Amino acid sequence: MNTRVVEKVIEQLQSLPYDLQRQVLEFTRALALSVPRGVAGRQVLQFAGAIPRSDIELMKEAIEKGNDWRKASFESAGE
Prior knowledge:
By secondary structure, the chain is mainly α.
């Protein structure tokens, strides 16, 4: 992050009325959401096959079943 740019943005932002400051905030949030996240598939291809098939099946079953452990954890925390 370029701190000089941030300083300039803040300087400009401070001179704006509240409603325009809110618009700037909403715009920056929208920009942040539009930035691609993660890594390219080529970068993780080296890990293909690293997880045993049996472990993948267990993970798949757990996902399909749902997160019962989280629900149980929250319920026991409330006791």
